[in-house]
Amino acid sequence: MSTEQKNQSVIVLNEAERVRYGGQAVVEGVMMRSPRFFAVACRRPSGSIVVQCEEVDKSLLGKLKFLNKPFLRGTLGILDAMILGSRALNFASKVQLEDASTIKSAAPLPATTPSPSAPVAKPTETNRAGSKINEIAVGGTILISLLFGLFVFRLIPTVLGEKLANVGIIGSAPTNLMKNALDGAIRACFFFAYILAISRMAGIRAVFQYHGAEHKAINTLEAGVPLTRENALEASRIHPRCGTSFIVVVMVVDFLLCLFLPRPELFRRVLLHIAMLPPVAGIAYEAIKVAGKYRHNRMMMAAFAPGMWTQHLTTRVPNAAQVDVALAALFAVLEAEGHTVPAHTKPQEMEEVIFS
Protein backbone atom coordinates (compact mmCIF):
# COMPACT_ATOMS: atom_id res chain seq x y z
CA MET A 1 0.00 0.00 0.00
CA SER A 2 1.38 3.39 -0.98
CA THR A 3 1.81 6.27 1.47
CA GLU A 4 -1.04 8.10 -0.23
CA GLN A 5 -3.33 5.10 0.14
CA LYS A 6 -2.40 4.78 3.82
CA ASN A 7 -3.23 8.43 4.47
CA GLN A 8 -6.58 8.00 2.72
CA SER A 9 -7.32 5.01 4.97
CA VAL A 10 -7.04 7.08 8.16
CA ILE A 11 -10.39 8.25 9.51
CA VAL A 12 -10.00 10.89 12.18
CA LEU A 13 -12.75 11.28 14.78
CA ASN A 14 -12.92 13.81 17.57
CA GLU A 15 -13.32 12.64 21.16
CA ALA A 16 -17.10 13.09 21.23
CA GLU A 17 -17.52 11.04 18.03
CA ARG A 18 -15.07 8.32 19.05
CA VAL A 19 -17.03 7.12 22.07
CA ARG A 20 -20.20 6.79 19.97
CA TYR A 21 -18.78 3.95 17.87
CA GLY A 22 -19.03 0.45 19.22
CA GLY A 23 -20.58 -2.89 18.54
CA GLN A 24 -21.09 -6.50 19.49
CA ALA A 25 -20.54 -9.97 18.11
CA VAL A 26 -23.34 -11.96 16.48
CA VAL A 27 -23.55 -15.38 14.82
CA GLU A 28 -20.71 -15.46 12.28
CA GLY A 29 -20.55 -11.70 12.27
CA VAL A 30 -20.31 -8.31 13.95
CA MET A 31 -22.73 -5.44 14.52
CA MET A 32 -21.29 -1.92 14.56
CA ARG A 33 -23.10 1.21 15.67
CA SER A 34 -22.35 4.85 14.91
CA PRO A 35 -24.28 7.93 16.11
CA ARG A 36 -27.02 7.56 13.46
CA PHE A 37 -26.59 4.12 11.90
CA PHE A 38 -25.93 0.51 12.70
CA ALA A 39 -24.62 -2.21 10.39
CA VAL A 40 -24.44 -5.98 10.67
CA ALA A 41 -21.78 -7.81 8.66
CA CYS A 42 -21.99 -11.60 8.44
CA ARG A 43 -20.03 -14.22 6.59
CA ARG A 44 -22.25 -16.51 4.61
CA PRO A 45 -21.67 -20.28 4.56
CA SER A 46 -20.41 -19.70 0.99
CA GLY A 47 -17.61 -17.48 2.33
CA SER A 48 -18.81 -14.09 1.10
CA ILE A 49 -19.66 -11.18 3.43
CA VAL A 50 -23.08 -9.56 3.41
CA VAL A 51 -23.70 -6.26 5.20
CA GLN A 52 -26.98 -4.68 6.19
CA CYS A 53 -26.91 -1.01 7.20
CA GLU A 54 -29.87 0.78 8.73
CA GLU A 55 -30.65 4.08 10.35
CA VAL A 56 -31.03 3.78 14.09
CA ASP A 57 -34.70 4.23 14.84
CA LYS A 58 -35.50 6.95 17.31
CA SER A 59 -34.10 5.53 20.51
CA LEU A 60 -35.71 5.47 23.92
CA LEU A 61 -33.26 8.16 25.01
CA GLY A 62 -34.28 10.20 21.97
CA LYS A 63 -37.97 9.85 22.80
CA LEU A 64 -37.48 10.56 26.49
CA LYS A 65 -34.98 13.39 26.29
CA PHE A 66 -35.73 14.58 29.80
CA LEU A 67 -34.13 11.33 31.04
CA ASN A 68 -31.00 11.77 28.93
CA LYS A 69 -29.08 13.05 31.91
CA PRO A 70 -26.16 11.59 33.85
CA PHE A 71 -27.21 8.77 36.20
CA LEU A 72 -30.71 8.70 34.67
CA ARG A 73 -29.88 7.54 31.14
CA GLY A 74 -28.23 4.24 32.06
CA THR A 75 -31.30 1.99 32.03
CA LEU A 76 -32.65 3.39 28.75
CA GLY A 77 -29.21 3.19 27.20
CA ILE A 78 -29.01 -0.50 28.10
CA LEU A 79 -32.48 -1.18 26.69
CA ASP A 80 -31.55 0.63 23.45
CA ALA A 81 -28.45 -1.57 23.17
CA MET A 82 -30.49 -4.71 23.80
CA ILE A 83 -33.01 -3.75 21.10
CA LEU A 84 -30.31 -3.14 18.50
CA GLY A 85 -28.48 -6.29 19.56
CA SER A 86 -31.61 -8.40 19.14
CA ARG A 87 -32.23 -6.95 15.68
CA ALA A 88 -28.64 -7.69 14.72
CA LEU A 89 -28.87 -11.26 15.98
CA ASN A 90 -32.10 -11.74 14.04
CA PHE A 91 -30.44 -10.68 10.77
CA ALA A 92 -27.35 -12.79 11.44
CA SER A 93 -29.47 -15.88 12.04
CA LYS A 94 -31.33 -15.32 8.77
CA VAL A 95 -28.06 -15.07 6.85
CA GLN A 96 -27.03 -18.49 8.11
CA LEU A 97 -30.42 -20.09 7.51
CA GLU A 98 -31.51 -18.60 4.21
CA ASP A 99 -30.10 -19.15 0.75
CA ALA A 100 -27.98 -16.26 -0.55
CA SER A 101 -30.51 -15.50 -3.27
CA THR A 102 -33.21 -14.69 -0.71
CA ILE A 103 -31.26 -11.76 0.78
CA LYS A 104 -31.53 -9.02 -1.81
CA SER A 105 -31.24 -5.27 -1.62
CA ALA A 106 -34.04 -3.01 -2.71
CA ALA A 107 -31.70 -0.01 -2.36
CA PRO A 108 -28.00 -0.99 -2.29
CA LEU A 109 -25.61 1.33 -0.49
CA PRO A 110 -23.60 3.18 -3.16
CA ALA A 111 -19.85 3.54 -3.00
CA THR A 112 -20.26 7.15 -1.88
CA THR A 113 -22.12 8.35 1.18
CA PRO A 114 -25.85 7.58 1.12
CA SER A 115 -28.21 10.48 1.65
CA PRO A 116 -30.46 9.90 4.67
CA SER A 117 -32.89 12.38 3.14
CA ALA A 118 -33.20 10.49 -0.16
CA PRO A 119 -36.73 9.38 -1.10
CA VAL A 120 -37.67 6.05 0.38
CA ALA A 121 -40.11 3.68 -1.25
CA LYS A 122 -43.46 3.61 0.48
CA PRO A 123 -43.64 0.46 2.59
CA THR A 124 -46.19 -2.10 1.56
CA GLU A 125 -48.70 -3.70 3.89
CA THR A 126 -46.59 -6.87 3.79
CA ASN A 127 -43.50 -4.94 4.86
CA ARG A 128 -45.41 -3.27 7.68
CA ALA A 129 -46.71 -6.63 8.88
CA GLY A 130 -43.23 -8.13 8.70
CA SER A 131 -41.80 -5.19 10.62
CA LYS A 132 -44.48 -5.54 13.29
CA ILE A 133 -43.78 -9.26 13.66
CA ASN A 134 -40.06 -8.51 13.95
CA GLU A 135 -40.70 -5.90 16.66
CA ILE A 136 -42.76 -8.43 18.61
CA ALA A 137 -40.01 -11.02 18.25
CA VAL A 138 -37.36 -8.56 19.45
CA GLY A 139 -39.54 -7.53 22.40
CA GLY A 140 -40.12 -11.17 23.30
CA THR A 141 -36.41 -11.94 23.14
CA ILE A 142 -35.58 -9.03 25.43
CA LEU A 143 -38.31 -9.99 27.91
CA ILE A 144 -37.13 -13.60 28.06
CA SER A 145 -33.53 -12.45 28.51
CA LEU A 146 -34.50 -10.15 31.39
CA LEU A 147 -36.55 -12.85 33.10
CA PHE A 148 -33.71 -15.36 32.68
CA GLY A 149 -31.23 -12.88 34.15
CA LEU A 150 -33.46 -12.11 37.13
CA PHE A 151 -34.04 -15.79 37.81
CA VAL A 152 -30.43 -16.98 37.50
CA PHE A 153 -28.54 -13.98 38.84
CA ARG A 154 -31.00 -12.57 41.34
CA LEU A 155 -33.59 -15.04 42.63
CA ILE A 156 -31.44 -18.19 42.88
CA PRO A 157 -28.47 -16.45 44.61
CA THR A 158 -30.87 -14.79 47.06
CA VAL A 159 -32.50 -18.12 47.98
CA LEU A 160 -29.16 -19.91 48.17
CA GLY A 161 -27.61 -17.15 50.27
CA GLU A 162 -30.49 -17.33 52.75
CA LYS A 163 -30.12 -21.09 53.13
CA LEU A 164 -26.33 -20.91 53.57
CA ALA A 165 -26.69 -18.15 56.17
CA ASN A 166 -29.24 -20.23 58.06
CA VAL A 167 -26.86 -23.19 58.31
CA GLY A 168 -24.18 -20.97 59.83
CA ILE A 169 -21.69 -20.68 56.96
CA ILE A 170 -21.00 -17.05 57.94
CA GLY A 171 -21.35 -17.50 61.69
CA SER A 172 -24.03 -18.29 64.21
CA ALA A 173 -25.38 -14.75 64.38
CA PRO A 174 -24.74 -13.09 60.99
CA THR A 175 -25.75 -9.47 60.53
CA ASN A 176 -27.76 -8.19 57.57
CA LEU A 177 -24.54 -6.72 56.17
CA MET A 178 -22.87 -10.14 56.24
CA LYS A 179 -25.88 -11.81 54.64
CA ASN A 180 -26.06 -9.23 51.88
CA ALA A 181 -22.33 -9.65 51.23
CA LEU A 182 -22.85 -13.41 50.92
CA ASP A 183 -25.67 -12.88 48.40
CA GLY A 184 -23.44 -10.59 46.34
CA ALA A 185 -20.55 -13.05 46.40
CA ILE A 186 -22.85 -15.83 45.17
CA ARG A 187 -24.12 -13.63 42.33
CA ALA A 188 -20.53 -12.96 41.23
CA CYS A 189 -19.71 -16.69 41.35
CA PHE A 190 -22.78 -17.45 39.25
CA PHE A 191 -21.73 -14.89 36.64
CA PHE A 192 -18.20 -16.21 36.23
CA ALA A 193 -19.41 -19.82 36.26
CA TYR A 194 -21.88 -18.93 33.50
CA ILE A 195 -19.17 -17.30 31.39
CA LEU A 196 -16.81 -20.24 31.85
CA ALA A 197 -19.57 -22.73 31.00
CA ILE A 198 -20.65 -21.11 27.76
CA SER A 199 -17.05 -20.44 26.70
CA ARG A 200 -16.59 -24.21 26.38
CA MET A 201 -19.32 -24.44 23.74
CA ALA A 202 -17.94 -24.67 20.18
CA GLY A 203 -20.40 -22.16 18.72
CA ILE A 204 -19.76 -19.62 21.47
CA ARG A 205 -16.01 -19.76 20.90
CA ALA A 206 -16.55 -18.42 17.36
CA VAL A 207 -18.79 -15.64 18.76
CA PHE A 208 -16.05 -14.74 21.25
CA GLN A 209 -13.58 -14.53 18.34
CA TYR A 210 -15.88 -12.12 16.53
CA HIS A 211 -16.13 -10.20 19.82
CA GLY A 212 -12.34 -9.88 19.74
CA ALA A 213 -12.49 -8.82 16.08
CA GLU A 214 -15.00 -6.08 16.92
CA HIS A 215 -12.69 -4.72 19.63
CA LYS A 216 -9.69 -4.82 17.31
CA ALA A 217 -11.55 -2.85 14.64
CA ILE A 218 -12.72 -0.18 17.11
CA ASN A 219 -9.27 0.09 18.70
CA THR A 220 -7.76 0.60 15.24
CA LEU A 221 -10.27 3.35 14.50
CA GLU A 222 -9.59 5.08 17.81
CA ALA A 223 -5.83 4.82 17.35
CA GLY A 224 -6.05 6.99 14.24
CA VAL A 225 -4.13 4.54 12.04
CA PRO A 226 -5.21 3.16 8.65
CA LEU A 227 -8.18 0.82 8.89
CA THR A 228 -6.49 -2.19 7.36
CA ARG A 229 -6.62 -5.86 8.19
CA GLU A 230 -2.95 -5.80 9.19
CA ASN A 231 -3.37 -2.95 11.68
CA ALA A 232 -6.55 -4.46 13.13
CA LEU A 233 -4.87 -7.82 13.67
CA GLU A 234 -2.14 -6.07 15.67
CA ALA A 235 -4.62 -4.07 17.79
CA SER A 236 -5.71 -5.18 21.26
CA ARG A 237 -8.78 -7.37 21.65
CA ILE A 238 -9.50 -5.62 24.97
CA HIS A 239 -11.51 -2.38 25.17
CA PRO A 240 -12.59 -0.33 28.24
CA ARG A 241 -16.12 0.30 26.91
CA CYS A 242 -16.85 -3.39 26.41
CA GLY A 243 -20.15 -4.80 27.65
CA THR A 244 -18.20 -7.31 29.73
CA SER A 245 -16.49 -4.48 31.63
CA PHE A 246 -19.88 -2.86 32.06
CA ILE A 247 -21.32 -6.02 33.62
CA VAL A 248 -18.40 -6.25 36.04
CA VAL A 249 -18.91 -2.60 37.02
CA VAL A 250 -22.63 -3.33 37.48
CA MET A 251 -21.77 -6.23 39.81
CA VAL A 252 -19.42 -4.08 41.89
CA VAL A 253 -21.89 -1.18 42.18
CA ASP A 254 -24.75 -3.58 42.89
CA PHE A 255 -22.70 -5.33 45.58
CA LEU A 256 -21.86 -2.05 47.33
CA LEU A 257 -25.37 -0.57 47.21
CA CYS A 258 -27.14 -3.78 48.20
CA LEU A 259 -24.90 -4.27 51.22
CA PHE A 260 -26.99 -1.78 53.19
CA LEU A 261 -30.45 -2.93 52.15
CA PRO A 262 -32.87 -4.37 54.72
CA ARG A 263 -33.80 -8.05 54.48
CA PRO A 264 -37.58 -8.48 54.39
CA GLU A 265 -39.18 -11.77 53.32
CA LEU A 266 -37.90 -13.29 50.08
CA PHE A 267 -40.52 -11.93 47.65
CA ARG A 268 -40.25 -8.34 48.91
CA ARG A 269 -36.46 -8.60 48.99
CA VAL A 270 -36.33 -9.64 45.32
CA LEU A 271 -38.62 -6.72 44.42
CA LEU A 272 -36.36 -4.40 46.40
CA HIS A 273 -33.33 -5.64 44.48
CA ILE A 274 -35.15 -5.15 41.17
CA ALA A 275 -35.96 -1.59 42.22
CA MET A 276 -32.23 -1.03 42.75
CA LEU A 277 -31.38 -1.93 39.15
CA PRO A 278 -32.03 1.54 37.62
CA PRO A 279 -29.69 3.41 40.00
CA VAL A 280 -27.10 0.63 39.67
CA ALA A 281 -27.31 0.81 35.86
CA GLY A 282 -27.12 4.61 35.96
CA ILE A 283 -23.93 4.66 38.02
CA ALA A 284 -22.30 1.85 36.00
CA TYR A 285 -23.22 3.51 32.69
CA GLU A 286 -21.53 6.76 33.64
CA ALA A 287 -18.51 4.91 35.00
CA ILE A 288 -17.97 3.10 31.68
CA LYS A 289 -18.27 6.38 29.76
CA VAL A 290 -15.58 7.89 31.99
CA ALA A 291 -13.37 4.81 31.47
CA GLY A 292 -13.66 5.18 27.72
CA LYS A 293 -12.88 8.90 27.85
CA TYR A 294 -9.78 8.47 30.03
CA ARG A 295 -8.62 5.12 28.67
CA HIS A 296 -4.99 6.30 28.53
CA ASN A 297 -4.94 7.27 32.21
CA ARG A 298 -3.10 4.58 34.16
CA MET A 299 -4.95 5.15 37.42
CA MET A 300 -8.30 5.00 35.62
CA MET A 301 -7.40 1.76 33.88
CA ALA A 302 -6.16 0.29 37.16
CA ALA A 303 -9.57 0.99 38.70
CA PHE A 304 -11.30 -0.81 35.82
CA ALA A 305 -8.76 -3.63 35.61
CA PRO A 306 -11.16 -6.40 36.79
CA GLY A 307 -13.51 -5.67 33.90
CA MET A 308 -10.59 -5.62 31.46
CA TRP A 309 -9.30 -8.94 32.80
CA THR A 310 -12.73 -10.51 32.41
CA GLN A 311 -12.64 -9.71 28.70
CA HIS A 312 -9.97 -12.39 28.36
CA LEU A 313 -12.83 -14.82 29.02
CA THR A 314 -15.38 -13.27 26.65
CA THR A 315 -13.04 -12.55 23.73
CA ARG A 316 -10.75 -14.82 21.75
CA VAL A 317 -8.03 -13.94 19.26
CA PRO A 318 -9.78 -13.68 15.87
CA ASN A 319 -8.41 -14.82 12.54
CA ALA A 320 -7.95 -12.54 9.54
CA ALA A 321 -11.28 -13.56 7.99
CA GLN A 322 -13.16 -12.59 11.17
CA VAL A 323 -11.36 -9.25 11.35
CA ASP A 324 -12.45 -8.60 7.75
CA VAL A 325 -16.07 -9.06 8.81
CA ALA A 326 -15.69 -6.58 11.68
CA LEU A 327 -14.07 -4.04 9.37
CA ALA A 328 -16.86 -4.50 6.80
CA ALA A 329 -19.47 -3.55 9.43
CA LEU A 330 -17.38 -0.59 10.59
CA PHE A 331 -16.86 0.63 7.02
CA ALA A 332 -20.62 0.56 6.40
CA VAL A 333 -21.48 2.86 9.33
CA LEU A 334 -18.52 5.15 8.61
CA GLU A 335 -19.68 5.64 5.02
CA ALA A 336 -23.25 6.15 6.17
CA GLU A 337 -22.01 8.89 8.52
CA GLY A 338 -20.29 10.68 5.64
CA HIS A 339 -16.71 9.40 5.87
CA THR A 340 -14.96 8.19 2.75
CA VAL A 341 -13.57 4.66 2.93
CA PRO A 342 -11.16 3.84 0.09
CA ALA A 343 -12.19 0.78 -1.90
CA HIS A 344 -8.75 -0.83 -1.52
CA THR A 345 -9.25 -1.21 2.25
CA LYS A 346 -12.52 -3.14 1.96
CA PRO A 347 -12.52 -6.95 2.18
CA GLN A 348 -12.67 -8.52 -1.26
CA GLU A 349 -15.36 -10.96 -0.12
CA MET A 350 -17.90 -8.20 0.50
CA GLU A 351 -20.82 -9.33 -1.61
CA GLU A 352 -23.33 -6.59 -1.09
CA VAL A 353 -24.51 -3.89 1.26
CA ILE A 354 -28.19 -3.59 2.02
CA PHE A 355 -29.27 -0.12 3.11
CA SER A 356 -32.79 0.14 4.50
What does this structure look like?
This protein is of the alpha+beta class. The protein has one domain (3-123, 199-355). 58% of the residues lie in helices and 8% in strands. It is built from 14 helices and five strands. The protein has helices at 3-8, 15-18, 60-63, 74-97, 125-166, 176-199, 202-223, 229-234, 243-258, 266-275, 277-293, 298-303, 305-314, 320-336; strands at residues 22-26, 29-33, 37-43, 49-55, 350-355. A five-stranded mixed β-sheet has the order 1-2-3-4-5. Strand 1 and strand 2 (29-33) form a beta hairpin. The chain is elongated. The relative contact order is 0.19.
Topology (SSEs and partners):
Layout (H helix, E strand, L loop, with lengths): L2 H6 L6 H4 L3 E5 L2 E5 L3 E7 L5 E7 L4 H4 L10 H24 L27 H42 L9 H24 L2 H22 L5 H6 L8 H16 L7 H10 L1 H17 L4 H6 L1 H10 L5 H17 L13 E6 L1
Parallel strand pairs: 4-5
Antiparallel strand pairs: 1-2, 2-3, 3-4
Helix pairs in contact: 4-5, 4-11, 5-6, 5-10, 6-9, 7-14, 9-11, 9-13
